[in-house]
Design brief:
With 206 residues, this protein is mostly helical. The chain has one domain. It has 9 helices and no strands. Helix 1 packs antiparallel against helix 2, helix 2 runs parallel beside helix 4 and helix 6 packs antiparallel against helix 7. The chain starts with 18 loop residues before the first helix and ends in a 33-residue tail after the last helix. 43% of the residues are buried.
Length: 206
C-alpha cells in the first residue's frame, strides 16, 4: 500500500523505474495489467534504441496518445526516469511533457512527489533550464521562504547549463538519497541529436 506519492519516486536506479505501474495499481487498478505491459515495452523499446533515444520518445508519444489524461504525468515521468543517463535532452523532454500534462489537464500535484522527482531529474542532469526555473517558482509558491531555500540551494550561484546546473543543485542539497548523482550520469551515446518535436503525446499534421 502506497502511503505517500513521494514513495513512487525510484530510489534504486531510475533506469528501472516502475512509477507509472505503481501509480496505476492504486489509482486505476482496472488498468494495472496494461500499465505493466507498458513498463515492459519501455524496457525492451529503450534496449533496442539506447543509442537513439529520440526514436524511443517518438514511440512513447504514440502510446501516450491512447492514455487517459490523469495517467500522463506518471507515464512521462517514468519514461524520463528510464532516460536518465542518456544525455540531458531526452529525459528533459519527458519531464517537460509530464509537467505540461499536469498544467493542460488541471491535474492535482503532490508537492512531496514533485520535489523529490525534480531532484531526481536534476541530479541526473535531465532537467532543461525552463523546467528548472519553473521548479524554482513551484518551491517558492509551496514552501515557506526558509524551507524553499533549503530545498533549492544557492540557485543563483549555479554554473552554466553546459556544466549541468541542475545536477549541481542536487549535490548542494546534501541529500544522501541522491549522492550517487553527484558525478556525471551513466554514459550513453551522446553523438546523436534527438529530433525536435512535441513529447506530450501530440503530433503535427502529416
Amino acid at each position: 500500500m502506497i502511503v505517500s506519492l513521494e514513495s513512487l519516486v525510484p530510489t534504486a536506479g531510475p533506469q528501472g523505474s516502475r512509477t507509472y505501474a505503481d501509480w496505476v495499481a492504486v489509482h486505476d487498478p482496472d488498468a494495472a495489467g496494461t500499465a505493466r505491459e507498458l513498463i515492459e515495452d519501455m524496457r525492451t523499446g529503450l534496449g533496442r534504441s539506447w543509442t537513439k533515444p529520440g526514436r524511443f520518445l517518438d514511440a512513447m508519444a504514440a502510446r501516450a496518445r491512447r492514455l487517459p489524461p490523469a495517467h500522463l504525468p506518471w507515464f512521462w515521468d517514468t519514461v524520463g526516469h528510464r532516460l536518465i543517463g542518456c544525455g540531458s535532452r531526452p529525459g528533459g523532454r519527458a519531464y517537460a511533457a509530464a509537467r505540461a500534462a499536469e498544467a493542460e489537464h488541471g491535474l492535482p500535484v503532490d508537492p512531496g512527489y514533485r520535489r523529490a522527482n525534480a531532484l531526481l531529474f536534476a541530479a541526473g542532469g535531465a532537467m532543461h533550464a525552463k523546467e528548472f526555473g519553473a521548479h524554482q517558482r513551484f518551491l517558492a509558491e509551496t514552501l515557506e521562504p526558509s524551507a524553499a531555500h533549503t530545498a533549492l540551494g544557492p540557485v543563483f550561484k549555479l554554473p552554466s547549463a553546459v556544466r549541468r546546473p541542475a545536477r549541481t543543485l542536487a549535490a548542494l542539497s546534501g541529500s544522501p538519497r541522491y549522492i550517487q548523482y553527484r558525478g556525471d550520469p551513466p554514459p550513453c551515446d551522446r553523438t546523436h541529436r534527438t529530433p525536435h518535436g512535441p513529447a506530450s503525446g501530440r503530433t503535427t499534421a502529416a
